[in-house]
Write a structure and sequence with these properties.
The complex is a heterodimer of chains A (262) and B (303).
Chain A (H helix, E strand, L loop, with lengths): L3 E10 L2 E11 L4 E6 L5 H8 L7 E6 L2 E2 L5 H6 L2 E4 L11 H8 L7 H14 L1 H5 L10 H13 L5 E5 L7 H16 L3 E6 L2 H7 L2 E6 L2 E7 H6 L1 H7 L13 H14 L1
Parallel strand pairs in A: 3-8, 3-9, 6-7, 7-8
Antiparallel strand pairs in A: 1-2, 1-4, 4-5, 9-10
Chain B lengths: L1 H31 L6 H19 L6 H28 L7 H23 L4 E2 L11 E3 L5 E3 H23 L1 H11 L1 H6 L4 H26 L2 E2 L3 H16 L4 H22 L4 H15 L14
Antiparallel strand pairs in B: 1-4, 2-3
The chains are: A alpha/beta (262), B mainly alpha (303).
Family (chain B): Belongs to the binding-protein-dependent transport system permease family. LivHM subfamily.
Protein name (chain B): Branched-chain amino acid ABC transporter permease
Membrane topology (chain B): Multi-pass membrane protein
Chain lengths: 262, 303
């Protein structure tokens, strides 16, 4: 059974349709990438999955349990982690306090929390150095680490990441992607929303391409990366050059804009 | 000098009432950006309930200290319950509605509670049963002529204890921290697994409970109650919250005591009828210099 099974999901903002008939699945231990231009509905998809936005139709099953109409805090309590777009760390709280809040659902198990906190600081030594610092004073990359670490405090079985590389330097981006791989190795399935299509597909097992609220393409990551339509729209139209080092960040951005007009 | 000391003691006592009530305003504002018009009425309900309990129990042979404690606990619990129920039925359904709807429903609740009380209890002033050890002749004489009555001592001690307790609750416990992060970013709080609705309700319960305690002590101190007492005191308490920096808990405490002191000095050194002029004049002055209040954070825009 799939860990996450989404069938025919519809969502809208007032009269504006944001998602229509989205179906996808994530198997245990998988990394699945969601690609798409700005406004394709990627963030709405994640917000609807975690109950921050109301689904109009369709079902979402987490490990076979229907979570479509559950409230966000229940869904989080069932092991669904969501690192939101823009990181959303609690700026006026210290790094350590942010992690504490991440473990809110496990507040009655201080021993487990202490252990997870230790693991998070091990995964992000940089955060360990800044435990007492207010989260608002961290750099963007550090805030992204904190946002991920905070979600890990709840020991999620499933982790949705919304644009973790947004606004980060190439160095930080590589670092974050490395962390995502390690998270998967520890048994957590990952749903990765990214504009940085090239890197996302290199990391993911499978991928889906969203266009104006619908799944336009899906398949194994390697196949998507070779698909001429994906190349044209999201990989900057570059030929399938296997050169691993290129001006990655900017090309994917332009690709996104190109797809918007198509 | 003796006058000054006496005015200070009086001011701290009145300030304690303002501070306790201001806390409720500031906590609710911090968490859902609502100016809760009905908050002063939680104070009034506490005062009336305490009066009822006192009337029932004085003359029953119970020691008067116990009677006071029972009245305090009962009125606090009743006000807290009223706060929780009104959050559930009046405010929570409107959390996502435009802020103006929330404000109007707060106004409606306030009028309903006030005039409901007027209908059932009458519009006149009702006197509160006399409790021997709280009357003015029981006092600790400090330097010559300066007196701290037991009642004043009780008010200041109970308020300080509650404020310290509240501060520890908000900074040291999970639920208290949830309240603070909810004020920073509601969706992010949900993603941490915080039950936002329940946490908002808890905020109302605590704020209303503090107002209920203040109402009881007020009834015992002045000893009379009236259905509009919450409106008048609430206005000053709200001023205190703004003065301290709305949304900021230590700010509400500082603002409350400051307003109490100002009021007492103005009454003592100028004249009673100038009190409001002085108090609100200072408020305006402070806000011109520091628009976010004494302890208010300079508003950082969310990115």
């Amino acid at each position: 059974m799939a860990l996450l099974e989404v069938t025919g999901l519809d969502a809208s903002y007032g009269a504006i349709e944001a998602l229509s008939g989205v179906s996808l699945r994530v198997e245990p231990g998988e990394i699945v990438a969601i690609l798409g231009a700005n406004g394709a509905g990627k963030t709405t998809l994640l917000r609807t999955l975690t109950g921050l936005h109301r689904a109009k139709a369709g079902t979402v099953l987490l490990d076979g349990q229907d979570i479509t109409r559950r409230r966000a805090h229940d869904i989080v309590g069932m092991g669904f982690g969501h690192v939101p777009e823009g990181r959303r760390v609690f700026a006026a709280l210290e790094v350590d306090g942010n992690l504490t809040m991440g473990g809110y659902q496990s507040r009655k198990e201080p021993a487990a929390l202490a252990e997870r906190r230790r693991q998070v600081y091990e995964l992000f030594p940089r955060l360990a150095e800044r435990q007492g610092q207010l989260a608002g004073t961290l750099s963007g990359g550090e805030q992204q680490m904190l946002a991920i670490g905070r979600a890990l405090m709840n020991a999620p079985r499933f982790l949705a990441l919304d644009e973790p590389s947004l606004g980060l330097s190439p160095l930080f981006t590589r670092n974050i992607f490395k962390i995502v791989r390690r998270i998967r190795e520890q048994g957590t399935a990952v749903l990765l929303v990214e504009q940085n299509a090239r890197q996302a597909l290199r990391l993911a097992d499978r991928g889906y391409v969203l266009e104006t609220g619908r799944v336009a393409l899906e398949g194994p990551a390697a196949e998507l990366a070779d698909d001429p339509r994906v190349k044209a729209a999201y990989l900057g139209g570059a030929p399938a050059e296997p050169s691993p080092r290129g001006p990655v960040a900017s090309t994917s951005d332009n690709g996104g804009k190109g797809a918007d007009g198509s | 000098m003796n006058d000054f000391l006496q005015y200070t003691l009086n001011g701290l006592t009145v300030g304690a009432f303002y501070a306790l009530v201001a806390l409720g305003y500031t906590m609710v504002y911090g968490i859902i950006r609502l100016l809760n018009f009905a908050h002063g009425d939680f104070f009034m309900v506490g005062a009336f309930l305490a009066t009822g309990v006192l009337s029932l129990l004085t003359g029953s042979g119970l020691p008067s200290g116990l009677v006071v404690v029972v009245a305090l606990v009962a009125a606090t619990a009743a006000a807290a319950a009223l706060g929780g129920v009104s959050a559930r039925i009046v405010y929570l359904p409107l959390v996502k509605a435009p802020k103006l709807s929330l404000l109007v429903s707060a106004l409606g609740l306030s009028l309903a509670v006030e005039y409901g009380t007027a209908l059932s209890q009458g519009t006149g002033f009702r006197s509160v049963p006399h409790i021997g050890f709280l009357s003015a002749e029981h006092a600790i004489g400090l330097t010559d002529g300066v007196r701290l009555t037991y009642a004043q001592l009780g008010v200041i001690a109970v308020s300080l204890a509650l404020m310290i307790g509240l501060y520890l609750y908000v900074t040291r416990t999970f639920t208290g921290t949830a309240m603070r992060v909810l004020a920073m970013d509601q969706d992010a709080a949900r993603l941490m697994g915080v039950n936002v609705e329940r946490t908002i309700m808890m905020t109302f319960i605590i704020g209303a409970g503090l107002a209920g305690t203040a109402g009881t002590m007020y009834a015992l101190y002045y000893p009379q109650v009236n259905f509009l007492m919450g409106f008048l005191l609430g206005l000053r308490a709200f001023t205190a919250a703004v003065l301290g920096g709305i949304g900021n808990i230590p700010g509400a405490m500082v603002g409350g005591f400051l307003i109490g002191l100002l009021e007492s000095y103005a009454t003592g050194y100028v004249a009673g009828r100038w009190t409001d002029v002085v108090v609100f004049g200072v408020l305006i002055g402070v806000l011109v210099i520091r628009p976010s209040g004494i302890l208010g954070e300079r508003v950082a825009e969310r990115v």
